[in-house]
Specification:
about 475 residues, alpha+beta, 7-stranded antiparallel β-sheet, 5-stranded antiparallel β-sheet, 17 helices, globular
Amino acid sequence: MTMTISNNLKRPEPQALASAVEALAARFGNRLITSQAVREQHAHTTTWLPTQPPDAVVMAQETADIQDVVRICAKHRVPVIAFGTGTSLEGQVNAPAGGVCIDLRDMNRILQVHAEDLDCVIQPGVTRKALNEHLRDQGLFFPIDPGADASLGGMTATRASGTNAVRYGTMRENVLALKVVRGDGEIITTGTRAKKSAAGYDLTHLFVGAEGTLGIISELTIKLRGIPETIAAAACSFETVRGACQATILAIQTGIPLARIELLNAEQVRACNAYSKLTLPETPLLLLEFHGSEIEVAEQSRNFSEIAKECGGGDFTWTTKPEDRTKLWQARHDAYWSVKALRPGAGVVATDVCVPISRLADCVTETEEDLKQLNLLSPIVGHVGDGNFHCSLVCDVDNAEEMARGEEFMHRLVERAQSMGGTCTGEHGIGQGKQKYLEAELGPEAIDAMRALKQALDPQNIFNPGKIVPAN
C-alpha cells in the first residue's frame, strides 16, 4: 500500500515519445538507457509515494548534452526530469507523465575555486562531500549539510538546508549565480560572483527551490567559508522535550552563535543508541556544535551550559576531537536508518515542518501528544535552531487501518504548523507529496502567480511536470 497522489497529467503521444527516444539514441548512443532496472533507480523514493519511472535515462557529461536533450524533448513535447543523487523526499524525481530523465552525476567537475573571494564554480553533479574534500587543503569548506551526500545541483533545486543552517543559512543564502538551460535549450545566466547585486530581477533565487520545474541547472557559483580554528561538539540531555526547546529558544534569543543545534526526542535517542552503538542517556537530547577561536568556543559552550541548566538540562559534555565529533554527527545523520531498524519490514516516511522559533516547544510537544493519541511510532529530530523538525513515521504498509492513522497524523502535523504561522515543509520541498497544502499556506493568488511563472518559462510544461504547483 502506498500513499495516493493525484495525477491529471497527460503522457506524450506514443509516436512522439518513440521519435524523441530515437533522436536521443542517435545523439547519445549507449549513454541513453531504457532498461527497466535503471529507469526504476531514477525514480526511487524513500517515502510511501509510488515509484513512477521515466521512459529513458540520458547520462549527461556536459552542458551541451543537457541542451540537446531539452531541444529534442521540447520538439516532441516529452517531459524532462533532472536527477542528481536521488535523495529528495517528496517525489521530486518521479516521472508521473513519463519522459526522459537527465542523470547529472557525471557532470562533477569543480571548475574554479576563488579562495581569496570565498566562492567556487562547479557543475551540478558535484556532491557536498567531494567538494569539501577538494577544499580542505585550502582551509575552506561548504557548510550546507543535509545529511545525505547529495549533489549541489539537487541541493540548489530543492533549496536544501541541514544541521548547519542556524549559522550558515540554507542553499538560498549560499548560491551566488546559476547557469540554467531553459525550455528552448538556450542558457540563462542569473548572476555574477559579486556578493551582492541590484541588477534586474533576482533570477538566481527564482531557480533555487524550483525543483527543476522552470529549467535545468548546468553550473553553479556558490559561497565558501573558512574552516574554523576550533570546532567543538557537545551533547546535553534534558528532562523534557519542552525544556530542550526552551533552551534552544533562549540560546538563539541571547545571540549565542551556534553552528549546529539538533533535537532528538527520547525515542530517537533510543534508536540512535541501538543503531550507532552509543550510550547516550535515553531522554530528550540536544546535539550542538560551536565554531570559532578556542576562546570563543569555550565562551559559547559556557554560556549555553548556563541556559541549559535553567531549562532542566543535565551534564554538558563536549569534545574537540574530530573522530568523536564525526561519530556523534554520523549518528544524527543515520537517524532515518536507525528508525527503520526499530521495526524491520515496516515502512518509514520522513516528513518535516517548520514554525517560528517561539512556537517550537508547543509544536513539538503537541506532536508527541498526537502520536500517543493515534498510537503511532515516529521518533523526532530537528534543526531546532531555525524551528524545523522532522518526524520519521513507522507504519506497516500492508495494514490499511494503521496507514490511515499515519496519513491522519501527517495531515494534522501540517495543519498544526500552519496554524502556528509556520510552513508545511522547512526543507524537504513540495514535490508531489505536499502539493495539497500549498494553497492553504500561501493562498490562491500565490498559486496563480506560480502558474504564470511556470507558463512563461516552460510554456510546454516539459520541465518536471506534476511537481510543486497543483493542477488546475
